Give the backbone structure.
Amino acid sequence: MKPQAAATPPSSDQELIALAAELRVTMSRLARRTRAANGGLTPSQLSALVTLDECGSLRLHELAGREGVAAPTTSRSVDELVRRELVERRADPSDARSAFISLTDRGRAVVGQAADERTTLLAASLAELDANEVAAIKAAIPALRSLSGRRRDIAR
């Protein structure tokens, strides 16, 4: 690895756009590498399980909103997850037309296993880097965490 110059903030919109493009491509490649550890689920199914793990029981339309997809799409995913006994539907006592979707113990185990496998894959990749590269990634974590916490409406 070549030595890096001292970090200086981009000085123009064009530099920010170039940085954003490089970051997008790099993060997409990294995500693709870790996506292999999915517990035999599609990315959208695993994402729904993770959302339920983080948020607890949700109504179908709430899960769809958090996932950024249409309710019918989420309904099909939930049907498959129910079939696999990874989630369950419970009637909403205040609205007979609605149901809560929640993780089963089996679903929670799949989420944990997928997270462990992805962490192991990333750790193995980090082990292939030199100490300076690992230190640079470690130093970038707070900024990446800040970036990932900012929400913007993006045109689809």
Helices lie at 13-34, 43-55, 60-67, 71-83, 105-127, 131-149. Strands lie at 58-59, 87-92, 95-103. The chain has a mean pLDDT of 87.
